[in-house]
C-alpha cells in the first residue's frame, strides 16, 4: 500500500565524512599538478639553502673569504661548483644567497601585506574622501616605474638622518632596509584587494548589527572584516613573494640592494657580465635559481588561488 | 569630457609637483652633496672654502627654501647643469629620450601583436593543450629575471654563436641603419619577453569573456567563419580595455628599460638615471626621474581619454 500522507521512506544514503574547508582546499590544491610539483621543489630548495652552514663546516670553507690564488677553479671535491672571480666557493654562496633571497621575499611580503591591508581597509571602511584620496595615491603609485624609485630609496645615506655609520652598514640593517623600501612602493595590489573585500563586507547586515550594538570601528574591522577578506589576501600574498624576489634580485644586481660580501642570487650576477667570456657558468647558476624559484612560487600562488576560490579556473593547470 | 580632461590634467600636475618635492627631499638624502663632488675633482679645497661655497650655493638654507628656488627656476625652464657631463641637463637628456623612445617603441611594436596572437589562440580552447603551453610560456616570461635573460642572450648569441653584437648601440656615430638594427635585436627581444607575459594573460582573460558574449554567438550563427568571428568581432571589443592595460604597463616597461639599457650600454633615460644616481649627479637624477614620471602620467591620461573615444558606450 502506498502511504497516503505521501511520506516515502528513501533508502538512506551514506553521508560522506565531514571534511573541513582546509581539507577540501588541500585536495583541490593537490589536483593542480604544477603547483604540487612546485611545492615539492620549494621544500627541496629550502633544505638546499639551509644546508649551507653544515656544508661549509664540513668542507671547512668560509663563503665570504676571498682567495685570489683560487680564482675560477673548476668543480672539485672541495669546491663542488668551482670558485668565482674572487676565489669564493660558488655552491655555498648560492646556498647562502638563497637564504637571503627567500627571507627577503617572505618578510617583505609580510610587511607589505600589513601596509596594504591597513591602507585598503581604511579606504574601504571609512569611505568618502579618505577612500578617494587613498585610492588616487594607489592609482598613481601603481603606474610609476618601481625600479628607478627603488634605486633612489636604496641609495639614501641614512647617516644624514642621524644614524651611525656602523649601524647603517650592518648586514641585518641592509636586509631590513631592502624589506622596508620594497614594501613602501609595492603595497598597491594588496591595498586594492583589501579595499574591494572591505567594501563588500562593510554593508553586510551583521556588520551593521554590530555597529548599532555599539561596536567600534576597530572591533568591526578585526572581528568581522579581516577574517572575511583573508582568502583573497592569502592568494595575493603568495603571488607577491615571487615578484618581491625578482625586485630584490634586480636591485641587488644593479648594486642598490643587498651588497657584498653578503651573497644574494642577484648580486652574484653583478660581476657576471664582465666574466661572460672567461666564466659563463657563473652567470648561469644564480639566475637559474631565481627563475626556478619565482616560477615555482608563482605556480604555488596559482594553485592556492585555484584551491581557495570555488569559481577559479587554473591558469597553469594541466590534466 | 572637457571638464573631465581638465580635472585629470590638474590632478596630474599636482601629482608631479608632489613627486618633485618628495624626490627633491630623497635626492638630498643621497650620499654627499655637490660641494663634496667638487672636492673630489679638486682635493686642494680647504674645509673653510667648502663651507663658504655651501653658503654661496645656498646649501645652508632650509629645505623648503631650497626646493622653492629649484622649483621656480625649473618652471622658468632652467633645469640646471649635470655635474657628470658638464653640460645642461636638457642637452644630456634629449638624446637619451630619443634612445629610450626607440627601444620602447620597437618593444611595443612586437609585444602587443604577440600578446594579441598568443592570448587569442589560448582563449579559443581554454584548458586545451595550446592554452596550457601558452599559459606556461607567459608564467615563465613573468618569472624570468630580465637581467639574467640579457646575460644568457649575450652568452649565446654574441659570445658563443657570434651572430649579434653584445651592445645595444653601434660604436661609431655614422653606423648604417642595418648596423643599428642589429644592435637593437637583443635588447628589444629581452624587453619583449619582459613585457609580453602579463599582457598575454590579460588578452586571454578578456577574450574568453568576449567569446562568450551574445554578439559572438550571433556572429557564429549567421555563418561567419571562425577567423572573422575572432578578429573582427571578439578581438576588437577585447582591445578597448587593452589601451588602459598598456598605459598602466608603461611604468613597468620603463623599469625593464632601465635594467636593459644598463646591461647593453645604451645611453637612454634608464641608464642615465642609473648613472646619475650612482655618481650622485643630483640634478640629472632629479630631472630624469621627473621626466619618466611625467611620461607615465601623460600616457595614463591619454589612455583614459582614448578609452572614452574608442568605446561609444562610455561617457566621461
UniProtKB/TrEMBL annotation, chain A:
InterPro entries: BP-dependent_transpt_permease, MetI-like, MetI-like_sf, OppC_N. Its main location: membrane. SUPFAM superfamilies: MetI-like (SSF161098). It holds the Pfam family BPD_transp_1. Keywords: Cell membrane, Membrane, Transmembrane, Transmembrane helix, Transport. It comes from the Bacteria. Residues 20-75 form the Oligopeptide transport permease C-like N-terminal domain. It is found in: Cell membrane. It is a multi-pass membrane protein. This is Peptide/nickel transport system permease protein. The lineage of its organism: Bacteria, Pseudomonadati, Pseudomonadota, Alphaproteobacteria, Hyphomicrobiales.
TrEMBL record, chain B:
CDD domains: TM_PBP2 (cd06261). Signal peptide: none annotated. InterPro entries: BPD_transp_1_N, MetI-like, MetI-like_sf. The chain crosses the membrane at residues 12-30, 103-123, 135-164, 184-203, 239-264, 284-310. Belongs to the binding-protein-dependent transport system permease family. Keywords: Cell membrane, Membrane, Transmembrane, Transmembrane helix, Transport. Gene3D superfamilies: MetI-like (1.10.3720.10). Its main location: membrane. It is found in: Cell membrane. It comes from the Bacteria. Residues 97-303 form the ABC transmembrane type-1 domain. It holds the Pfam family BPD_transp_1_N. It is a multi-pass membrane protein. This is Peptide/nickel transport system permease protein.
Amino acid at each position: 500500500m502506498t502511504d497516503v500522507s505521501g511520506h516515502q521512506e528513501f533508502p538512506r544514503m551514506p553521508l560522506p565524512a565531514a571534511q573541513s574547508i582546509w581539507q577540501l582546499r588541500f585536495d583541490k590544491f593537490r589536483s593542480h599538478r604544477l603547483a604540487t610539483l612546485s611545492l615539492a621543489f620549494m621544500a627541496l630548495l629550502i633544505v638546499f639553502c639551509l644546508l649551507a652552514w653544515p656544508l661549509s663546516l664540513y668542507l671547512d670553507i668560509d663563503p665570504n673569504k676571498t682567495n685570489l690564488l683560487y680564482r675560477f677553479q673548476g668543480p672539485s671535491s672541495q669546491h663542488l661548483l668551482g670558485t668565482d672571480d674572487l676565489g669564493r666557493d660558488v655552491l655555498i654562496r648560492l646556498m647562502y644567497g638563497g637564504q637571503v633571497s627567500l627571507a627577503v621575499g617572505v618578510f617583505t611580503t609580510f610587511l607589505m601585506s600589513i601596509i596594504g591591508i591597513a591602507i585598503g581597509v581604511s579606504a574601504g571602511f571609512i569611505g568618502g574622501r579618505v577612500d578617494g584620496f587613498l585610492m588616487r595615491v594607489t592609482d598613481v603609485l601603481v603606474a610609476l616605474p618601481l625600479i628607478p624609485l627603488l634605486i633612489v630609496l636604496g641609495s639614501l645615506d641614512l647617516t644624514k638622518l642621524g644614524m651611525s655609520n656602523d649601524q647603517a652598514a650592518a648586514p641585518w640593517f641592509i636586509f631590513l632596509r631592502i624589506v622596508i623600501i620594497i614594501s613602501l612602493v609595492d603595497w598597491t595590489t594588496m591595498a586594492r584587494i583589501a579595499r574591494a573585500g572591505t567594501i563588500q563586507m562593510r554593508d553586510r547586515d551583521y556588520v551593521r548589527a554590530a555597529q548599532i550594538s555599539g561596536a567600534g570601528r576597530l572591533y568591526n574591522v578585526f572581528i568581522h572584516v579581516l577574517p572575511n577578506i583573508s582568502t583573497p589576501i592569502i592568494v595575493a600574498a603568495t603571488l607577491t613573494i615571487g615578484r618581491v624576489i625578482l625586485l630584490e634580485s634586480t636591485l641587488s644586481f644593479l648594486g642598490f640592494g643587498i651588497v657584498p660580501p653578503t651573497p644574494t642570487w642577484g648580486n652574484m650576477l653583478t660581476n657576471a657580465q664582465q666574466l661572460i667570456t672567461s666564466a659563463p657558468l657563473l652567470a648561469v647558476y644564480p639566475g637559474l635559481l631565481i627563475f626556478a624559484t619565482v616560477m615555482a612560487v608563482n605556480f604555488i600562488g596559482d594553485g592556492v588561488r585555484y584551491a581557495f576560490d570555488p569559481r577559479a579556473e587554473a591558469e597553469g593547470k594541466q590534466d | 569630457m572637457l571638464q573631465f580632461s581638465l580635472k585629470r590634467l590638474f590632478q596630474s600636475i599636482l601629482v608631479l609637483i608632489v613627486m618633485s618635492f618628495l624626490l627633491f627631499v630623497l635626492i638630498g638624502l643621497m650620499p654627499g652633496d655637490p660641494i663634496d663632488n667638487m672636492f673630489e675633482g679638486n682635493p686642494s679645497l680647504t674645509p673653510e672654502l667648502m663651507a663658504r661655497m655651501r653658503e654661496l650655493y645656498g646649501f645652508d638654507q632650509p629645505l623648503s627654501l631650497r626646493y622653492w628656488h629649484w622649483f621656480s627656476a625649473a618652471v622658468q625652464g632652467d633645469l640646471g647643469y649635470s655635474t657628470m657631463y658638464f653640460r645642461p641637463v636638457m642637452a644630456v637628456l634629449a638624446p637619451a629620450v630619443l634612445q629610450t623612445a626607440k627601444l620602447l617603441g620597437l618593444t611595443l611594436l612586437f609585444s602587443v601583436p604577440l600578446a594579441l596572437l598568443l592570448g587569442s589562440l589560448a582563449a579559443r580552447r581554454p584548458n586545451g593543450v595550446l592554452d596550457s603551453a601558452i599559459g606556461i610560456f607567459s608564467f615563465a616570461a613573468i618569472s624570468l629575471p630580465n637581467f639574467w635573460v640579457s646575460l644568457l642572450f649575450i652568452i649565446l648569441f654574441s659570445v658563443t654563436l657570434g651572430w649579434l653584437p653584445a651592445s645595444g648601440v653601434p660604436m661609431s656615430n655614422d653606423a648604417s641603419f642595418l648596423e643599428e638594427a642589429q644592435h637593437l635585436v637583443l635588447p628589444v627581444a629581452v624587453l619583449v619577453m619582459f613585457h609580453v607575459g602579463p599582457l598575454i594573460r590579460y588578452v586571454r582573460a578578456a577574450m574568453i569573456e568576449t567569446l562568450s558574449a551574445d554578439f559572438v554567438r550571433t556572429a557564429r550563427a549567421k555563418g561567419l567563419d571562425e577567423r572573422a568571428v575572432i578578429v573582427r568581432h571578439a578581438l576588437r571589443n577585447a582591445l578597448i580595455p587593452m589601451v588602459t592595460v598598456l598605459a598602466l604597463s608603461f611604468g613597468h616597461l620603463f623599469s625593464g628599460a632601465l635594467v636593459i639599457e644598463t646591461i647593453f650600454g645604451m645611453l637612454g633615460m634608464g641608464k642615465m638615471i642609473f648613472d646619475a644616481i650612482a655618481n650622485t649627479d643630483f640634478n640629472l637624477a632629479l630631472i630624469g626621474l621627473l621626466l619618466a614620471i611625467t611620461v607615465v602620467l601623460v600616457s595614463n591620461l591619454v589612455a583614459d581619454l582614448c578609452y572614452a573615444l574608442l568605446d561609444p558606450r562610455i561617457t566621461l
